[in-house]
Amino acid sequence: MSSVGFVGLGCMGSHMARNLLKRGRQVVAFDVDPKRAAELKADGAEIVKHPADVAAATKELVTMLPNSAIVRSVYKESNGILATIRAGSLCIDSSTIDQSASIEIASLVAEKQSAYVDAPVSGGVGGAQAGTLTFMVGGDQPHFDQAKPLLELMGKTVVHCGAVGTGQAAKICNNMLLGIQMIGVAEAMNLGIKMGLDPKLLASIINTSSGRCWSSDTYNPVPNVIEGIPPSKNYVGGFGTTLMTKDLGLAQTASTEAKAPTPLGSLAHQLYQILSKHPDFKDKDFGVVYQFLKNN
Ligand code: NAD
After folding, report:
1. Which residue lies with its CA nearest to atom 29 of ligand 1?
2. Looking at the annotation, which residues are catalytic?
3. Using a 6 Å cutoff on CB, does residue 55 contact ligand 1?
4. Which of 66, 178, 293, 295 has its CA at 20 to 30 Å from residue 194's CA atom?
5. Which CATH number among 3.40.50.1110, 1.20.140.10, 3.40.50.720, 3.90.320.10 corresponds to the domain 4-162?
6. Average pLDDT, stretch 26-41?
7. Residue 57 Cα, ligand 1 centroid: separation in angstroms?
């Protein structure tokens, strides 16, 4: 079986590439960080010097990169994927980026007689490691059908959302709602505790009442309400305030382009911008918004 190309071996991509190796695929990979590349080499991947080398060696390519600007450069720079991509290749971008960036790259890839799908994920680092990610895929039906078996080596659920860019739309809407919900739960928990309620009791009432949501029953931001999650481990690990700020920013761009008002999404973006610059909160899990509200 031919090799899979992988660019971006960070918190998510390293686990995803490792799952491809574990499930019998050979991997040709690149990351700008030599330490990340060396770690995957130790697990059996072939490491190359540029994204162009990945595209020259493989016809199925996965990218898992931090933001739109970096995805654009990995495709478009002189040593990028588009420089060497072979006709008939399939490109899967699992980064969370602007819908417009996905659509632009898809058309550049089409000019090379190749296919592109956007396939952002939910499930976090734990899901990437366990191979249980959910992929939200945008692309033509035949390209989705082609991508699905590969995605199933890295995830449990693969959903076709529609044309190119709709995977990003689904991801951006979900994460905007997540940010709003987390702030709402943090506000309610802080208020209730300051009104004299026991945190675990308040959480259990919310979780059997109409205020229940993922941020209250699975990822409660108050320390020790739920053991083992980042809020109970000084907000270390998990989903950082910087990534949440980025995703809420993508929602704001989308809201402007689609002319769909998102007043709470906008407020959530402003709050997480403050957190992502604050020395006490910038490197912490996004549940830390509870500490910000508690102390202000
Ligand atoms: P990360 O910062 O840990 O990893 C990104 C990797 O890309 C790093 O190893 C970095 O060295 C590499 N990189 C940067 N520029 C590069 C370039 N020009 N060429 C090659 N490699 C380059 O980020 P992550 O947590 O793995 O997230 C990746 C994407 O997945 C982001 O878009 C993020 O929003 C999304 N995401 C993350 C999570 C999460 O919980 N971390 C969950 C869902 C989605």
Report:
1. 95
2. 171
3. no
4. 178
5. 3.40.50.720
6. 98
7. 22
